[in-house]
Amino acid sequence: MAAPDGPAPARGDRTAYAQLLEHAGRTTVALCAAPGTGEARLWGSGVLIAPGWVLTCAHVPVPHDGRRRGTGPDGVLGVAVGGRVLAGRLEYDLSRPAPEAGPAAARPDLALIRLLDPAVEHPCAWVSDQPAALLEDAYIFRGHDEHLASPQAATEAARERVLRESGRDNGAAAGPAGPADAFIAVRFGARDARGLQFGSDVRVTPGASGGPLVECDRGEVVGIVKGTHRQDHLGLAVPVTALRGLGPEHLVAGAEGLGPDPYHALMSAHDRWHWAGQDLGRGGGPTWFDAQHAIMSGRGRLWGVQERLQALDLLARLPAPRDPLVVEEAVGAALDRDGAYNGSGAWTLRTWRDGHGALYQGSDPYTELRAVVHYLRIVAQLTADRARDVPGEEAAAVREEAARLEEFVRAKAVVLRSQDRRMIGPVRRRPRSVLVEFEPLFFYDEAGRELFNWSVSEGYGRGRWLRVEVRESDGGVPFEQARDEVLRGLGARLLRADGEAGEGAPVRLEVAVPEGRWDTPAGGWEVAASTRRTAKGWPVGPRRPVVLRDQARRDEVDRAWLRRWQGITAARELHALRLPPDPPDAASPEALLRLLDGADDGTLPTLCHSVSDGIGREAVAIALDSGFPAGLWAAAGHGERACDAACAEFHRGIRKLLQGPGGVARLPDLVRELRAEAAGPAAVGTHWARDLVLLYDDPLDPLPQLFGDRPQVSPS
C-alpha cells in the first residue's frame, strides 16, 4: 500500500522511478510462436493492460503484408510472461476493420491478444487516460528471449541498471545498451500527426515493436512502440488514446470478443483490476499504484493518484454513455467552457474515463479538483437519470452505483469554497414532467369569482421539483386569467423541458387543480408549437401526455392512497367502475363509499356526469377520500339529467381503452393516442374523447408545497 506523502521527488530523479520500471518490466511480454511448437524466435513485444488481455502493435502478429505468422491450431500464438509461454489468440486487429465499417473506421497499428486461460494471474500496466504531448522522462520496454527463460532476472537487471545510472547527472547519456536490456531510456519525445516520436541514446533493437512507452513523471503507459529508423535512434509509438477507436468492427473472424462496446469493457476491467489491487489484506507486494504514489507524492495536488484510482473504479462500474457527445458536453460544463469539449481525432472522448483524463489542463491544484468534482457530479446524475423508473435488477444496480459515485463526490467536495459548492450543486437533471399548479386563495373578487395564484415547476420524480415560474400576490387573479397567463409561456416551457430531457417522448404535462376545477380540459389547451413569436397554437393533448392532479393532495400521503396506488400499479388489467351507477337515484354518499371500498385493485372510477358540481363532484370527492389515484371523466359531462346514448358511447369507449394487459402506468400514453385520434380527420367513434380528463395522482411523486416556509426540494 502507498505510504503517506513525503517530499516530492525531483523531476528526472531515476531512483524514484525504479519501482515503476520494475512493474513495467513485469507487465511487458514477448510474443512468439505457440507453446509446444519448439520455435523460440521473438516476434515482438506487448504489454498486459487488463486481466487476460495484451496490447501490442497489429503488425507484430500480422505483418503489414497481411501474412499470418506461424501460429498453432485456431491461430494460437505464444505470450511469454512470468517464466512461462502461455497460449493466446489475436482477438482485435484495429488496423484491419471489417469492410462494412467503411472508410471512417479507425485503423491504428494496434491489436489485442487474449490469453486463453482465464485463470492465469498476472500484473497489469497502467494505461493513461489522457493524451501525451511532450515526454521528458520516459522509457520503452522490449520483450526478448530472456523473458522465455527468466523474466525475473531481466527485470532485476533493469532495476539495477536504473539504480546505477541514478548517480549520473540528469544530462549525462546513459551507457550503451546491451542486446538483452529490458528497457531503453527515451531522451526526448513529442507528438505529431504520425504519433509519438521519440529519440534515445542507443539504437532500439528489433523486437521492441508492440512494447510499452512509459512516461515516468506520471507513471503511465502513454504509447505502444511501432518502429524505429534504421539510420538513427529515432522511433515512433502509437498513442494509447488511439485505442479509443476500438469497436466491434475490429473483431477478428471467429474471436469471442468483449461485447458490443469492447473499449468500455476493456478499460473498465483495467480500472477495476487496479483498484482491487489496493484491497486490505491482499498479498503480492507493492502495486503499480504504489509506484505512482512514490513518484507523485508531495506535489501539492488536491486530486492525486489515490483519488484518481478510486474515481476511475467507480466510473468503470457505470454503463457506457449512450453517446460520446454526452461525455464532451460534461467535460465542457466541468471546465466552465461554452459548448462541448473541443477534442478531435484520436483524442475523441468515448467513455467517462476519457472525460476524466480531459480535465487535466495544467491548471492550479484547486481548479483541477473543482473541475473533476463537477464532472463526476454530472456523470452520477446523468447515470441515475438514465436508470430512473426503469424496472429490473440491472437498473437497480446502476442506480446503486450512481449513488456510490454521488457519495464519493460529496466527500471530495467538502474542501471546495462555498460558492463553488453552490455552483456544482444544482446540476440539472432530465425533467420528466412540467407541473402547472393553481392555488386557491379562498376569497373572491367583486364579481364573486374565486381568486388564484399559480406556479410552473419541472418534475424529476419522487417528489423532486424545481419551480421555474411563479405568479404570487396577495390579491390573486380569477382562474380564467391565471390559466391565460400560464398559457402565454407554457409552450416554450414545454419545449425547453423536452430539450433538457433529451431524445425520446416529450415530457408529461401535469395540471394540479382544486375541487370545483376538476373539469379543467387541460388536454385541449392550445400552446405554441415553436419558440417563434408568431407561432401557431395547437392543442397540447394529442402531442404529449396530459394528466390532472388533485391540488389538495400534497405533503402527507395517507395509507389508503398509497395502498390503492400499489394495487393499481400491480394490477394485470384495468376495468372501469361507472360512477354514479345507472340509474343514479339510489347513489347516496354511503352507497358510493361502499361501492368504492369493495372495488378490486384494477378499478378505475369513470364518470360521464359533470364533476364540477352535483353528484359527479361528490362521487369524485368520495373516490379520492377512498384513496383512488386515477380516474377518467368527460370535462363537459352532463348535469343531473338521466344518462342517454352519448353516455353509453362514452362508457363503451372507456372499456375499450382499458382493454389489454398492463397497469395504470400505460394510461397517460394511451389517452394521448386516443386524443390524437379524436382530433384527426377520421375521428369516427372517438369524438367523445376530445375532452377526456385523466386523473393520475402518483403518491410516490407528491406535489411540492406551492407557497410555504420550507424550501422546495431541488433536483440536485
From TrEMBL:
Q: Which InterPro entries match?
A: Peptidase_S1_PA, Peptidase_S1A, VMAP_C
Which Gene3D superfamilies does the protein's record reference?
Answer: 2.40.10.120
Q: Boundaries of each vWA-MoxR associated protein C-terminal domain copy?
A: 451-699
What Pfam families is this protein classified in?
Trypsin_2, VMAP-C
Q: What is this protein called?
A: vWA-MoxR associated protein C-terminal domain-containing protein
